[in-house]
């Protein structure tokens, strides 16, 4: 049982509202809930409505008393596809509309948020966290290889290996990602790398923005939980 003078830490988890990202961060939320950590899962109104309609998401998390869903506007109309060549419009809308709402949520949420776990591709989450003085941890919903490829997109474009044209040999090697020179092919890159140079460069910018000077990485869940608990203790001791 938690000590009354030392309540459980309160973590806000904020994924990019695309289903693959949401699924990964829901699993993280479940693991942290099992560790007794209070979780607020912040999802876009549009994505959460789809979750509620097509899955048993509410039933899945009712067994965790410290867990709650909260929704936020993503700034796009209901009929917007939020995918493909229009995915970058979601990032622009969230930066313009969602960012100030997110800051307001952080300032008003009770009990206060001790730590934010933000999607590694949502750079504005870190900006807001710094403004309000809440520690932030970026969570990668993709593999290390995938992130490293995104991070290297500027170098790939500069070398002339992107964009991928419609009549390309899709087995052509992409040789400008250090460590992956001998096996990364055109077909292994996401669809937005095929002629959508603007989308590819935006993804690279977002990946680089979330790697902040002075940061560190977690290699296992137990270390992450220990650090989250210590953040809560520091807040309550001050």
What does it look like?
The protein has two domains: 10-142 and 212-237, Glycogen Phosphorylase B (Rossmann fold), CATH 3.40.50.2000; 145-202, no CATH class. It has helices at residues 19-34, 45-54, 57-61, 87-108, 123-132, 144-151, 153-158, 197-209, 221-237, and strands spanning 10-14, 38-44, 67-72, 115-119, 136-139. It is an alpha/beta fold and 238 residues long. It is built from nine helices and five strands; from the N terminus they run βαβααβαβαβαααα. A five-stranded parallel beta sheet has the order 3-2-1-4-5, sandwiched between helices. The chain is globular.
Strand order of the largest sheet: 3-2-1-4-5
Q: CATH architecture of the largest domain, please?
A: 3-Layer(aba) Sandwich
What name does the CATH topology of the largest domain carry?
Rossmann fold
Helical fraction equals: 40-55%
The count of strands amounts to 5
Shape: globular
Order of H and E elements: EHEHHEHEHEHHHH
> Into which percentage range does the β-strand content fall?
5-15%
User: End-to-end span in angstroms?
Assistant: 23 Å
Which residues sit in consecutive blocks of at least 5 with pLDDT less than 50?
234-238
**In CATH, what is the class of the largest domain?**
Alpha Beta
Overall mean confidence score, pLDDT: 86
Q: What's the number of domains?
A: 2
The major beta sheet can be summarized as: 5 strands, parallel
Q: What are the salient characteristics of this protein?
A:
single chain, 238 residues, Rossmann fold, 2 domains, five-stranded parallel beta sheet, 9 helices, 11% strand, disordered C terminus, quercetin 3-O-glucosyltransferase activity, quercetin 7-O-glucosyltransferase activity
């Amino acid at each position: 049982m938690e000590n009354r003078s030392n309540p459980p830490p309160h973590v806000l988890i904020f994924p990019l509202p695309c289903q693959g990202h949401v699924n990964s961060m829901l699993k993280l939320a479940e693991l942290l809930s099992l560790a007794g950590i209070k979780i607020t899962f912040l999802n876009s109104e549009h994505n959460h409505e789809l979750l509620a309609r097509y899955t048993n998401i509410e039933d899945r998390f009712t067994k965790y008393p410290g867990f709650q869903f909260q929704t936020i506007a993503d700034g796009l109309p209901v009929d917007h596809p939020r995918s493909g060549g229009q995915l970058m419009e979601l990032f622009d809308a969230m930066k313009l509309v969602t960012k100030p709402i997110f800051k307001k949520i952080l300032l008003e949420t009770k009990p206060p948020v001790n730590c934010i776990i933000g999607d590694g591709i949502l750079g504005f989450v870190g900006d807001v966290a710094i403004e309000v003085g809440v520690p932030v941890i970026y969570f990668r919903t993709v593999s290390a290889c995938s992130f490293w490829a995104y991070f290297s997109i500027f170098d790939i474009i500069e070398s002339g290996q992107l964009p991928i044209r419609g009549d390309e040999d899709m087995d052509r090697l992409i040789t400008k990602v250090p460590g992956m020179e001998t096996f990364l092919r055109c077909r292994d890159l996401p669809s937005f790398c095929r002629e959508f140079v603007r989308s590819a460069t935006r993804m690279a910018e977002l990946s680089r923005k979330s790697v902040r000077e002075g940061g560190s990485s977690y290699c296992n869940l137990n270390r992450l939980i220990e650090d989250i608990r210590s953040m809560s203790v520091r807040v309550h001791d001050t």
